[in-house]
Amino acid sequence: MIGARNVGVAELTRAWDKRADSSIYFDGEPSATGTHGIPRVFVPRFKKVFYEEFFGALPDVGTSGGAKWNLQDTSAAGAPAASMVDRVTGVAKFVLASTGEAETFGINFADKLQLHPAKGLVVEMGVGIDTVFTSVMRLVAGVSSAHNDTLDSAVTNAWFRLEGTGANWLAESDDGTTDNDDKGTGVAILITNIYHLRLEFVSTSDVRFWLDGTRVASGTTFKTGANAVQPELIIQKDSGTGIPAMLVDYVAAWQFI
User: Fold this and answer.
1) Mean pLDDT (whole number) for 86-111
2) Which of 6, 176, 217, 224 has the highest local Cβ count within 10 Å?
3) CA 72, CA 74: separation in Å to the nearest integer?
């Protein structure tokens, strides 16, 4: 696991080159082509790098405020649960309870807003689901300002979304003024697949969405404004006894100080 610290080129290269959709290379590397023959975009060595690989035991996740990951749990009688899945490469599972109630569950930085769209921010996540959604279920994976259980009420966000019985990934952003909701990506969700989601903050008024190495929703200008953000990976239901689960393989983010 690579935390928020200065990291050598070789260490970062090992971390990202295992991904078939690796699209970056760092100072000191001799080639602009990855191990899979995919051209990669040059970026200078970043000062702040965060990398969490959900592999082996569940990482530092809790609700006390002292854990690295905040377990965002809004439930009453039910007990949503986080665990590791017995699966090659390691995957964490965040599953809602079978209790018939509204529930919100997932992970973020407990509203510690340590990422900033104006600092060349790039965020990558490996995310999937393990069951078909009903009309009252949804998932978001990306970044936001302070968490709000009414997801669209977050002041700032840029995230991928799955909504109800819709079969495709959606892209969304909000800068507090311009709200771009439910923009189609044309990519269908397949159950248990892990999708490699990437957000590139070219500027606060130009956020680009990539899905499995291909840019999506390029016809929309996504914006976040100059507001700090945190990772936000949330699964939610409005009612019912369904038990959908969010699968998380890894979360990465890097930016200039």
Assistant:
1) 94
2) 224
3) 7
Strand partners, 251: 52, 125
Chain segment 46-56, per-residue pLDDT in tens: 568 889 999 88
Would you state the structure tokens that stand for residue 81, as one six-digit string?
């649960």
Nearest CA to 207 out of 143, 139, 152, 127 is that of: 143
> Of 49-63, 127-141, 235-249, where does mean pLDDT reach its minimum?
49-63
Q: Is residue 111 part of a domain?
A: yes
Residue 130 in any domain: the answer is: yes
Tell me the percentage of the chain whose pLDDT exceeds 90.
Answer: 68
0.85 surpassed by pTM: no
Domain housing 214: 54-255
Q: Is residue 47 part of a domain?
A: no
User: Does residue 200 sit within a domain?
Assistant: yes
185 in Cβ contact with 212 (< 8 Å): no
Ramachandran bin of 202, using left for φ above 0, alpha for ψ from -120 to 50, beta for the remaining angles: alpha
SS (H, E, C) 96-155: CCCCCCCEEEEEECCCCCCECHHHCCEEEEEEEECCCCCCCEEEEEEEECCCCCCHHHCC
The encoded tokens of residue 72 equal: 């965002």
Q: How far is CA 224 from the centre of its chain?
A: 16
